[in-house]
């Protein structure tokens, strides 16, 4: 299993269009990987998927398919 951490972003980041939710959570690991999410629920889902995925690309594809 891979070491994955979920942390709250301080301060939150506003990215994208005006109607997009601010990014408040970051999933770190393994190694230098980082993905940002607006909710803790979305970050937890991605972290769970990433722990079992062979690569970051595979994890992102699985996350998009379930979201």
Question: Concise description?
Answer:
This protein is an alpha+beta fold. The chain has helices at 40-52, 56-66; strands at 5-13, 23-28, 34-37. A three-stranded antiparallel sheet has the order 1-2-3, covered by helices on one side.
Question: How are the SSEs placed, and which strands pair?
Answer:
Layout: E1 5-13, E2 23-28, E3 34-37, H1 40-52, H2 56-66
Antiparallel strand pairs: 1-2, 2-3
Helix pairs in contact: 1-2
Explain the overall architecture.
- The protein is 36% helix and 28% strand.
- The chain is α+β, with helices and mostly antiparallel strands and 67 residues long.
- The chain has one domain (5-66).
- It has a 3-stranded antiparallel sheet, with helices on one face.
- A hairpin with a 5-residue loop joins strand 2 (23-28) and strand 3.
- The longest helix is centred in the C-terminal third of the chain and has 13 residues, at 40-52.
- The two termini are 23 Å apart.
For the largest beta sheet, what order do the strands appear in spatially? 1-2-3
**Secondary structure: number of strands:** 3
Tell me roughly what share of residues is in helical segments.
25-40%
Indicate the overall shape.
globular
> How much is the radius of gyration in Å?
12 Å
Report mean pLDDT, rounded to a whole number. Answer: 95
- The secondary-structure class comes to alpha+beta
Distance between the termini: 23 Å
Low-confidence spans? none
Q: Could you state the order of secondary-structure elements as H and E?
A: EEEHH
Number of DSSP helices? 2
Number of domains: 1
**Strand percentage:** 25-35%
The biggest sheet, with number of strands, parallel, antiparallel or mixed sense and barrel status, is: 3 strands, antiparallel
